[in-house]
Amino acid sequence: MDNIADPDVLFDKEGVCNYWHQYKTAAQKGLLHGEKGKEKWAQVIAKIKAEGNNKKYDCIIGVSGGVDSTYVAYLVKEAKLRPLVVHFDNGWNSEIAVRNISNIIKYLNADLHTLVIDWNEFRDLQRAYIKAGVVDIEALTDHAIFGTLYKIAAKNNIKYVISGSNIETEELLPKSWIYNKTDPINIAAIHEKYGEVKLETYPFFSILKKKYYLRFKKLEFISPINWAPYNKQKVKDIITKEIGWEDYGGKHHESIFTKFYQNYILPQKFKIDKRKAHLSNLICSGQITKDEALKELELPIYDPKELISDKEYVIKKLGFTSEEFDTIMNEEPRSHHDFKIEGPIDNHFPILKPAKTIYKLFK
User: Fold this and answer.
1) Which partner for 10 in 18, 53, 117, 359 could form a disulfide, CB atoms 3.0-4.6 Å apart?
2) What is the pTM (predicted TM-score) of this model?
3) pLDDT of residue 192 exceeding 90
4) What element of type H or E holds 252?
5) All domains of the chain, ordered by start, with CATH?
6) How much is the average pLDDT of 36-64?
């Protein structure tokens, strides 16, 4: 990492950046390896099975066809859990991702719930974000995924969501590269300014809904990948052998749009090379050396032939002309905070501010 990739990066007196310290802190708090990790996962499995007794499903998992979610499917199968599998189809799945998801369902012999978003609405949202010039276009997909998982879990009386999020490959990401994934106000504000299609089916997910599901439905997210050493290459070998998983070539490249967004839009418009964060994470977790990472960064971020075909495909599917798209790419980026954002829950209900003070005194 450097101050080109992240202007807010900090270095201590020894020249060590804040991301190394961030990783070490997260690892100390969240990673449990060896016997402690095995014991933790065994305890959680027992809890899930007890809670799910006499229910059709005892947990829920989201799958994309990527490495992390596929490995979660493997862990769930090994634990003899009964998951409901959820997939969010935003219209950008690669053929490899579709095959991977199909293989996961066969491997688990589980039910699959696929939310197919209205393409006209989702395309209009993506067009609005690109026109707005904000950095986190993927917030649209992530927001819908979170909302869908919470809703389906509550509807099926499922208490546990098994997540593929993990510290060893995903902890490090500059805050300036992303935006709050659960802010429906920001999405609506950007769409109101630049959108053209009325949103009727997009699964907006507010802070109130989130608190409802967490506090009253007692929904709990579990990340078992943190409870054993997570070596990316070894995991790929396991899921390839056991599930028939196919490699799609890069982190989150199971989505055609995500591949184009990370490898073209981010570096072209925002001067962001996400490989720097992904490789830094692997360095911190001891999976590669810094020299190996630097050699990786010397390679082209996009295969020239793939870039030509992918760019043509994405622009056409989004309904832009090449001239329109290139003009937008050359415009100055804008902040998500240039548009209305969702504040603390107190802002929705001002009466809560004095009520919270009274509640604390009462406690």
Assistant:
1) 18
2) 0.88
3) yes
4) none
5) 33-346 (3.40.50.620)
6) 95
